[in-house]
Amino acid sequence: MEKYVIHGGTTLHGEVEISGAKNAAVAIIPAALMVDGVCVIENMPQISDTEMLLTILRELGAKIRYLNRSTVEIDCTNVWMQDAPYDLMRKIRASYYLIGAMLGRFGHAKTTMPGGCNFGVRPIDQHIKGMNALGADVDVKSGFVYADARDGKLHGARIYLDKVSVGATMNIILAATLAQGRTIIENAAREPHIVDLANFLNSMGADIRGAGTDTVKVNGVERLHGGSYAIIPDQIEAGTYMVAAAATGGEVLIKNVIPRHLECISAKLRETGTIVLENGDTVLVKGASALRKINVKTLPYPGFPTDMQPPMCALLCVANGTSVITEGVYDNRYKYVNELRKMGAEIQVDGRVAVVEGGKRLSGAPVTACDLRAGAAMVIAGMCAAGTTVVEDVRFIERGYENFVGKLNALGADIHIVDEAEETDGREKILSIMG
Ligand code: EPZ
Q1: pLDDT single digits (tens) 72-118
Q2: Is 315 helix (H, G, I), strand (E, B) or coil?
Q3: Which residue ranges of the chain lie beneath pLDDT 50?
Q4: Which atom of ligand 1 is nearest to the CA of 191?
Q5: What backbone phi and psi angles, to 5 degrees, belong to 4?
Q6: Has this prediction a pTM greater than 0.90?
Q7: How far apart are CA 346 and CA 231, in angstroms?
Q8: Is 117 part of the annotated catalytic residue set?
Q9: What residue spans define the domains of the chain?
Q10: Strand locations in 242-331, DSSP E?
Q11: CA-329 nearest atom, ligand 1
Q12: Domain 22-230 falls in which CATH fold?
């Protein structure tokens, strides 16, 4: 098991290139399963979630090869429904997209209940509601999800989502793409990665309109042909580096971004006194000498992204004054707060509200990455803290951030990756570093 050893007190300076969007890629790879031909997908992020999904597709008969570090060719001409590596499916939340993709391609699906980051209850009732409306029977038993199109094909339907759900919106788009007739999804989520999925499918011959609004219309087509597509830059990865630059008081040029996707993050950072300058496909972030407190509420896009809540909380621990965070999407996304408290943070949590007493100098400590974005928050806190922080369970971080340590060290951070074996031999080494 790997750990990050972070020597704090560094400020970040320089340039960083943002990779392809994780939450677009984990839907576009299952979407490739529906293409009767060869897809060439550029800007594919090198993260464990995409690796796992590519492995699952390979087990279903897809031919997959990398043309270069971030371009992958996927040929699903000869895929067939068979048992897939369920142990991999259980590890990631995005495995639910295989339901929509398999139903679309084969008329039936067998997946596991999704895994992924554990913060609060994360049901899939809206996914099931959508599949039922399109004419599929869905049965959940013994940890598996079985779906079957009642007469072998799905049929268009009008679906109103009871909850704004990114996953359900994307999953229904997948299943509706090859259905007979028209599907209308109302109260749809509007995230940039939903638009990216629709653009990918349309470039392969689908007929999807309105993605990015709260009403998406899908006219089913007979088949999808091959083609090429480039995934959009990752909004949350970019936001993470923006917050890290601001929290450490540095100056970082963040390249390969779509500023429009970052508007809410930029606006909240400016409220802290941080300078954020947009220019084409870059954003320059200059940390303020003293960060101001702010109040922030997370909401579905275009609101402040829930995935930016933990990194922003780490920043607010070192801002002056008392900040209030309200989590508007999940029931309980504050497990990581206990880890920040180990570093001296003063945070009171009551349900969906966290009150952060800033102005503290954090102190390095052994902490754990509770989930993907919580892990990023611990690294940001470790870079700001005095002394050394050891972050465990970094596998969560590597699910969603390509080359996280490499990119941060290139900006001036001081982070070492230590594996269990090395650390067991030199346990006293870690303890001595901790002082
Ligand atoms: C996606 O999760 C992302 N994951 C999450 O990112 C992100 O936090 C979330 O969207 C919100 O933006 C992927 O795209 C793989 P939702 P998803 O369905 O689809 C409730 C990260 O760090 N809900 O929009 O699971 C749900 O419990 C990860 O990259 C239902 O009640 O999120 C939540 O409260 C973490 N029933 C709310 O809706 C359902 O059927 C929003 O969930 C589905 C969701």
Answers
A1: 999 999 988 778 888 888 888 899 999 999 999 999 999 998 887 77
A2: helix
A3: 433-435
A4: 12
A5: -105, 130
A6: yes
A7: 39
A8: yes
A9: 2-19+233-423, 22-230
A10: 251-255, 275-279, 282-286, 295-297, 322-326
A11: 34
A12: UDP-n-acetylglucosamine1-carboxyvinyl-transferase; Chain (3.65.10)
